[in-house]
Amino acid sequence: MIEINNVTKDFAGKKRAVDQLNLTIPDGKIIGFLGPNGAGKSTTIKMMTGILPIDQGTISLNGFDIEKNAMDAKKIFGYVPDRPDMFLRLKGIDYLNFIGDIYNIPTEIRRKRITKLTQLFSIDHALGDYIQTYSHGMRQKIIVTGVLIHEPEIWILDEPLTGLDPKSAYTLKEMMREHANKGKTVFFSSHGLEVVEQLCDEVAIINNGKLLFYGSLDDMRKQYESNQSLEQVFLELTNNE
User: Fold this and answer.
1) Which residues form the ABC transporter domain (predicted)?
2) pLDDT tens digits along 161-184
3) Which of 156, 5, 146, 145 is nearest to 76 (CA)?
């Protein structure tokens, strides 16, 4: 479970990025986090993962406060950032072993997980190459693989499908569903509203740092007394802000 309580974030000389955000993400569901560019999605995710400090409020992951119990919280989530251009001077296998070392994954278990995941994402042939030689899609796959090898309870994914080929995107979506079906948490942001509509159990819509809606698509249709698609409701909500 992810609990975001009265969270606010300001940047000097700019408008408030996140404004008293309250959001409780339950276990066992895939939650889509939506909003136009500059709405506060990535800022929220970076506070959830401890990358950015929280100005006001608290965020906890499975009961661990991300600021007060940072190490405990960081052990239980996996984070895919919106840009995969990291650790470019490492070879793919060195990056994955580096992640394995951080999470103290035993060698034999690590080897099996790396083999399984890299074959699923069709990058097993490139593990001996430097990440800087990878295409954008391959970089995304190696980052996703690194996130998953320690089998975190909570997945926090910022635009995880960007750059993935159809087969790999399908594989990741299937893995997200399997993870949620095990009673774990999947929280991901996306601009692909059709994907969110097909995949997510619930959606949270944010704009100008404020939560506009949180609930299932059925809840949305009841609240707005409409049979419109998620795309249509999303555009109406964000255009009215």
Assistant:
1) 2-233
2) 888 899 999 999 999 999 999 999
3) 156
